[in-house]
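Field reference: sequence -> structure
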Amino acid sequence: MSKTRWTSILRNRRTPLLLVATAAAVALTAGCGGGTTTGSGQPSGSSAPSTSKAPTTGSTSGAPTTEGGKVSVSDAAAVQLCDLIRPQLSDWRVQGPTLGSIALNTTVHEWALRNGGINVQVLGDKDVVDRLMIANCPDVRDQALSALNLQTMASGIAF
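Structure field:
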């Protein structure tokens, strides 16, 4: 029975993405020395908080900012994160917290890579995933937390 389960896991398309994301994170860390990148011309930059996030919460703790080393991304990138996670929720419920957390890591690193290669910055500010999901798709975040048995999305990001 467990052989069948592992066979299906290895056939999953996300497994190779995990390897690619891990290799990319290592390469970025070694090659860039942890420095920031100007990336793909995302409007988020590093000098101003995202203005369209402010209306979604009444406090400053819910909106992504660049103050204090926090990661800030465009609205489109935030929605993209939600869109990457949403279709995986049913798989995570079936797979359970251990395998689902691996898929979460893969998804977050794939998303970061697509959005300017900000993998290292995301690892330095894992709470960005919670902030973005609270502001853009709290229902998806709640379902992911339940499926992965986590208190926060940040606690599920290991590498």
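Note: The two ends are 29 Å apart (CA to CA).
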